[in-house]
Specification:
binds magnesium ion; 6-stranded mixed sheet; globular; binds adenosine-5'-diphosphate
Length: 331
C-alpha cells in the first residue's frame, strides 16, 4: 500500500510451448486490476480471487498486460527513489521453477540502444541503467554519487562469489572438485551488521561497466550449473548495488550509503518436496531452510508491524535471511 514498506506484485507467466500445444491445458488464471482470479472448476464456475498491490498479466490482449518495462516502472522505480533518498531496499522474485523469476530479474539480455533498454531486459539491467541515468542527470554538483556492486549465490547454505577475480583464472587451483572456489563465510560486524567475508565488491562508473560484470556473473552461474542438474532452480542469487552519496558539510564530508538487494530465489517447489537421499536431500533441506526462514521472517515482521508486540524474528536460521538483515533494516 501507499504507506506500507512492503509491496507485493504478482506476475502471471504465459503458457509455455508444451502447454500451448496440449489441448487438455487451458488457462484458468485471469488478472483483473489488483486481483488474480483462478477458476478451479469451469463447470461450476468456482472462482477464487486473490488481491495484491500489483497484478500483471502476460496476455498482450489483457488490459493488465505487463512488459518488462511495465514491471520496472511499477515495482522498481519506487525502490530507486528510496535508494537515492538513502534507504535500503530489497526485491525478491519468488515462485516455482519455470514461473519467470529469472526472466523478470535478469531477462534475456542487458542491451541498451540510444538510451532504451531492449524489450526483454529484466529488472537488474534496467535498475542499473536507471541508476546511472540519475547520477549523470543529477543537478546537485555538490553531491558526489558512487556505485559499487556485488553478485553472489547461495547454494546448500554456502555462498559463492559470482564476480571473484582473485585466484588463478578459471579458479582451478583454489577450487573444490566441482570447480568452485571455497565458499565464503558470513560474519557479524558490530556496527554494519552481517556481511560476507572476502566477497568482491566492484566500483562501477557506467552502465557498460555493469554490463561487463553481469556477463561475468551470469556466465559463472551458467558454468557452475553444468554437471549439477538444474542447479539454478536450487540456488538463490543476490545482486547488490551500494550507492554512496557524499557532500561537503563545513570542514567535513558527510556520506550516506544505501544498499539495494535484487534477489532471484530458488524454486519454491522445493519447500514442500521431499528428496530421497544424499546430495539431493541436503539440497532440499537447505533450500527449505532459506526459503522457509524467509517466509517466517516476513511473517514475523508483518506481525511486529502490527505494533502490539515484538515477536522473535528468526533471521539467523538461514544464510539468506541472516545476510539480508542489515542493521539499518532491509528485512
Ligand atoms: P524461473 O527462473 O522462475 O525458473 P524463467 O525465468 O527461467 O523461470 O522462465 C522460464 C521460461 O519462461 C523462460 O524461457 C522465460 O523466458 C519464459 N518466461 C517466463 N516469464 C515470461 C514472461 N512474462 N514473458 C515471456 N516469457 C517468459
Ligand atoms: Mg531461474
Amino acid at each position: 500500500g501507499e504507506e506500507s514498506s512492503l509491496t507485493v506484485g504478482v506476475r502471471v507467466r504465459p503458457l509455455n510451448h508444451r502447454e500451448e500445444n496440449d489441448s487438455l491445458v487451458f488457462n484458468v488464471v485471469y488478472v483483473a486490476a489488483n486481483e488474480v482470479q483462478v477458476t478451479c472448476d469451469a463447470g461450476t464456475g468456482t472462482t477464487h480471487r486473490f488481491s495484491y498491490d500489483h497484478c500483471f498479466s502476460s496476455d498482450p490482449l489483457s488490459p493488465s498486460y505487463a512488459s518488462q518495462a511495465t514491471i520496472f516502472n511499477a515495482l522498481v522505480q519506487p525502490l530507486i527513489d528510496k535508494a537515492f533518498q538513502g534507504y535500503n531496499a530489497c526485491l525478491f522474485a519468488y515462485g516455482q521453477t519455470g514461473s519467470g523469476k529469472s526472466y523478470s530479474m535478469m531477462g534475456h539480455d542487458t542491451d541498451c540502444v540510444n538510451g532504451t533498454m531492449s524489450y526483454d531486459a529484466g529488472i537488474i539491467p534496467r535498475f542499473c541503467h536507471e541508476v546511472f541515468e540519475r547520477i549523470s542527470s543529477s543537478d546537485n554538483s555538490r553531491v558526489t554519487i558512487t556505485a559499487e556492486i556485488s553478485y553472489f549465490e547461495i547454494y546448500n547454505e554456502k555462498i559463492h562469489d559470482l564476480l571473484a577475480t582473485t585466484g588463478t583464472s578459471g579458479g582451478t587451483s583454489a577450487s573444490d572438485p566441482n570447480g568452485r572456489r571455497p565458499p565464503l563465510k558470513v560474519r557479524e560486524h558490530p556496527q554494519d551488521g552481517p556481511y560476507v567475508v572476502d566477497l568482491s565488491v566492484h566500483g562501477v562508473e557506467s552502465f557498460s561497466d555493469i554490463q561487463g560484470w553481469l556477463a561475468v556473473g551470469n556466465g559463472q552461474r551458467a558454468t557452475a550449473a553444468t554437471g549439477m542438474n538444474e542447479k539454478s532452480s536450487r540456488s538463490h542469487s543476490i545482486f547488490s548495488v551500494i550507492l554512496t552519496q557524499t557532500h561537503p558539510h563545513g570542514d567535513v564530508e558527510l556520506s550516506r550509503r544505501s544498499k539495494i538487494n535484487l534477489v532471484d530465489l530458488a524454486g519454491s517447489e522445493r519447500v514442500s518436496q521431499t528428496c530421497a537421499s544424499g546430495d539431493r536431500l541436503r539440497e532440499g533441506v537447505s533450500i527449505n531452510r532459506s526459503l522457509l526462514t524467509l517466509g517466517k521472517v516476513i511473517a514475523a515482521l508483518a506481525e511486529n508491524a502490527g505494533g502490539r508486540r515484538r515477536g522473535f524474528v528468526p533471521y539467523r536460521d538461514s544464510v539468506l535471511t541472516w545476510l539480508l538483515r542489515m542493521v539499518s533494516g532491509i528485512l
